[in-house]
Write a structure and sequence with these properties.
Structural class: alpha/beta
Helix content: 40-55%
Distance between the termini: 28 Å
Largest sheet: 6 strands, parallel
CATH class: Alpha Beta
Number of domains: 1
CATH architecture: 3-Layer(aba) Sandwich
Bound molecules: 3-methylbut-3-enyl trihydrogen diphosphate, magnesium ion
Number of helices: 10
Number of strands: 6
């Protein structure tokens, strides 16, 4: 029995977030340049996106490039940006076929103009779809996201459009990039690292964390289904005791 058969489709998480890590080590292990790992990582993205459509997931959010990643060697950064430019437009057909709506979060204006343009183009073209919402976190920093939310709220208060007493978790959340999405119930990180690396800090307050040693280019839909099946075995208590939950 495959892991897909172990998944209860009636109890799917609505939103799964992934930290796709380990491309560089994967390539190095094969005696290749790091970029080779990023290229192969794209195949995993494709497979996991298709797997998400297969089970009817609503939201998949992929950590694609962090604000900190800009500080990598220039050649690697350029190669990743070029990979995005060449990959994103190629996916339109599959997105349309699978009813996928592309979305992006992060400081998108930091992206090279060509990359930004391709991204917006595919986001616009797929905006008619209402199946999976696939969000790419690009030039993303969770702390910056939180700071910009605080600034947006402060501005509303300053302009008299919001009273301080009305600021609550809901208002705060609606000012994050993810304002219109449910919080991820499951966060997956590949490559055996046990950290969050500035990803969705607010949103994962109660997410179940799943870590695997697999490097991202080796991670395929079967591994994704395994993570979801594992998630479904857990008891989410939200501060209550077991007897209250059951
Ligand atoms: C993840 O793989 C992709 C990005 C961060 C862009 P890495 O490039 O971080 O690969 P490792 O962690 O060095 O192996
Ligand atoms: C996190 O991976 C960012 C992405 C997967 C895009 P990193 O490889 O940049 O994270 P650290 O530096 O090991 O924490
Ligand atoms: Mg890494």
């Amino acid at each position: 029995m495959g892991y897909k058969d172990q998944i209860d489709l009636l109890k799917l998480p609505r939103h799964v977030a992934i930290i796709m890590d380990g491309n560089g080590r994967w390539a190095k292990g094969k005696g290749k340049l790091r970029v080779f790992g990023h290229h192969n990582g794209v195949l995993s993205v494709r497979d996991v996106v298709e797997g998400s459509c297969e089970i009817g997931l609503e939201y998949l959010t992929l950590y694609t490039f962090s604000s900190e990643n800009w500080n990598r060697p220039k050649l690697e950064v350029m190669a990743i940006m070029e990979l995005l430019v060449s990959t994103i437009p190629k996916e339109i057909e599959t997105f349309m076929k699978n009813n996928v709506r592309l979305n992006a979060i992060g400081e998108l204006s930091m992206l090279p103009p060509k990359c930004h343009k391709e991204l917006i183009n595919v986001i616009n073209k797929t905006s008619v779809n209402n199946g999976l919402t696939l969000t790419l976190a690009l030039s993303y920093s969770s702390r910056r996201e939180i700071v910009q939310a605080a600034k947006a709220i402060a501005l509303k208060v300053q302009e008299g459009r919001l009273a301080i007493d009305d600021i609550d978790e809901e208002i705060f959340e609606s000012n994050l990039y993810t304002g219109n999405m449910p919080d991820p119930e499951l966060l997956i990180r590949t490559s055996g690292e046990f950290r969050i690396s500035n990803y969705l800090l607010w949103q994962i307050a109660y997410a179940e964390l799943y870590f695997t040693n697999k490097l991202w280019p080796d991670f395929r839909r079967e591994d994704f289904f395994e993570a979801i099946a594992d998630y479904q075995k857990r008891e989410r208590r939200f501060g209550l005791i077991s007897e209250q939950v059951n």
